[in-house]
Amino acid sequence: MTDARPPAGPRAPSTFLTVAGVLGGLFGVVVGAAVAARGTTSAVVGGSLLITFGAAVLLSWSSTLLRLRESRRAAVDGSLAPRPELVDGEPATYHPRSSGASRALGLAALALMGTWALVMIVLALLRGAPGWLVLLVPWAVLVLGGPVLALAGRLAPGGVYVTPTRVVDVDRGGRAEIALVDVDMIAPMPGRVLLRPRRPGAVTVRRFAGIWGRRPRTDLFVAETTGLYGEGAALVQDVQRVMGR
Question: Tens of pLDDT along 33-79?
Fold first, then answer.
C-alpha cells in the first residue's frame, strides 16, 4: 500500500517561536555581559555562562532557519540527483543528502558550550576547586563529542540507498535497513518518508557514533527527506518502482 500524498518539506517554526528564540538568545548575551562586567569571579563565571547559552541559542535558531532555505535549494539541486552506487557490494540508486552551513552552525553552538566548560575546568584546577570537575568534565565530553565526531566524518548526513531487495538509510552516525518484501506501506510525511514493516523486527539498525549519533527507530523505517533532491519525491518514486507499485 502506498499513501498517495506527495512528500512535503520541513515546516518552518512559527513567528512567535522564532521571535522568542532570538529575543531569548539576545537577552542571555546582554544580561550575561552586564553580570560579567561586575568583575568578581562568580560574576564572570555566571555572566560568561549566560553569554555562552545566549550565543548558542542564536546559533541554533540561525541553523534552523538556514536549514529550511538549504532544503529548498537541495530539492532542485541537480548535483544531489539520485545516482547509481554500491552498498555492501549490491547495486543501488543512491539519494544523497546535502550538507550545508546550517549543520556547521548547529555544531558551532555545541562547540561554544564545550569550550566554555573547558575554560571553567582550567579555572577550577587553577583555583583549587576540583569538586566542580564532577559537573564540568561530563558536560564538556557530552557537548564536544558531537563536533569532534563530525570533524572525524562520523556524523555525515549520508543518504538513502534503494537496491532491488532493500532500502538502507545512513544518516549522522546511524544506519537503518529494511527488506522490500517486508514493506507494507509507503507513507510520505513532512520532512520524512515512512516505510511501515509487515512484521516486528523487519527494521535492523546500527549505530556507530555512540550517544552523539542518530538513533534510528526499529518499529518503523524513517528516512528524513530534508536535504534530499525533490524533497523525497524521487525517493518515494524509486521505492515504488523497485517494488512494482
Answer: 999 999 888 899 999 999 999 999 999 989 988 888 888 888 899 99
Q: How far apart are the C-alpha atoms of 226 and 220, rounded to whole Å?
A: 18
- The structural domains of the chain, with segments of one domain joined by +, span 1-245
Classified as helix, coil or strand, 176 is strand
* pLDDT at residue 201, as a whole number: 93
The backbone torsions φ and ψ at residue 94, rounded to the nearest 5 degrees and listed phi first, read -100, 130
Stretch (H or E) spanning 139? helix 133-151
Neighbours of 207 (CB within 10 A): 15
Question: How many Å apart are CA 186 and CA 140, to the nearest integer?
Answer: 41
Number of CB atoms found within 10 A of residue 178's CB: 22
pLDDT of residue 176: 97
- Starting at the edge strand found earlier in the chain, the sheet holding 174-179 runs 83-87, 90-96, 159-162, 166-171, 174-179, 203-207
Distance CA 121, CA 180 (A): 51
More confident residue, 199 or 20: 199
The C-alpha angle 227, 76, 64, rounded to 5 degrees, equals 35
pTM above 0.90, yes or no: no
Segment holding 186, helix H or strand E: strand 183-189
Strand, coil or helix: 1:
coil
